[in-house]
Amino acid sequence: MQRHDTQDNQNLYWYAVHVKYRHEFKISDRLANIGIDFFLPVVERLRKWKDRKKLVDFPLFPGYLFVHIQKNNPDILTVLKIPGVVRFLGVLPGKPAPVPEEQIISLKKILENKRDIDPYPYLKQGQAVRIKRGLLAGVEGMLVKRAGQHMLVLSVDIIQQGVSLKIDASDVERI
Q: Which CATH number fits domain 9-112: 3.40.50.720, 1.10.357.10, 3.40.630.10, 3.30.70.940?
């Protein structure tokens, strides 16, 4: 969506906005109606029902979208007043932090490519994680990367030994 007014693009910044669960499309419509530029990353998934199959758009990051606005209180308040908007994201409470433009540009390029795109948990090497599905659900350990593979390392502190297991990072969650 494009901004309907003639504001200088140099003063515009991207911000991440947390929205109510399953309100991403409603809020994007409301943003478009008031002329605010936004970006809602979506992926297309094949959904199956008993009687049919259909390609359906889903938010890539459920509960989040991005707005391209000035770093001033009137623009921020305009977005916050939209029903379903929860808050702007930032390091300090009440102080929205801009998202680097390069990250938005890269995300748009990836989505334009239309290949298999899946959300990927934001995990850091050395972070404590828990396997969330499968036979090993509930197992906790440390996430490490070795030879390009994600590994779950379980340490037994008392004997100062550990074991590693190759995992798919989408099967783990932060703890």
A: 3.30.70.940
